[in-house]
């Protein structure tokens, strides 16, 4: 039995972004409990040459909305990268989830061989739809969510693997 492009993308995107939102809620509660400004978390990075938490979330959401749009033949919506609080990052995640939920299996399924071209600075890779989803989008999504998780965990937020996976 094969799995559809829709089932390999939309439900996973919704779940992982939802898990990320739950992690952000725990981060806000942690900051309140410890009595520090949650802004410190938004701008925190694991190493000076790495992007901060805000960018990790912006890239994760851009990756997801770009994927469903491109696979369905639409232009991805542009979100300003101006979130400065955990609440604003959470709102961005929710906006992305709401956007992803507008797509149907009819729009995504059958795009395995669709040509997808990206503009990444001076590099313009070309993928088939399936390679784009499996070899670019999903690894990119997991990388940025994992990095966001690591930033928060490094700052003492009490989260674990179950939070990342969304296990209850």
Give a description of the structure.
It is built from 7 helices and 2 strands. With 168 residues, it is mainly alpha-helical. It has a single domain, classed as Four Helix Bundle (Hemerythrin (Met), subunit A) (Up-down Bundle), CATH 1.20.120.450. The protein has a two-stranded antiparallel ribbon. The longest helix is centred in the first third of the chain and has 30 residues. The model has no long low-confidence stretch (mean pLDDT 96).
In total, the number of strands is 2
Biggest sheet layout: 2 strands, antiparallel
Instruction: Quickly give the CATH architecture.
Output: Up-down Bundle
Strand content: under 5%
Indicate the low-confidence ranges by residue numbers.
none
User: Which CATH top level class fits?
Assistant: Mainly Alpha
Average pLDDT taken over every residue = 96
InterPro entries: DinB/YfiT-like, DUF1993
Pfam families: DUF1993
Summarize the SSE layout with pairings.
Blueprint: H1 5-34, H2 39-42, H3 53-71, H4 86-100, H5 105-108, E1 115-117, E2 126-128, H6 129-154, H7 161-165
Antiparallel strand pairs: 1-2
Helix pairs in contact: 1-3, 1-4, 1-6, 3-4, 3-6
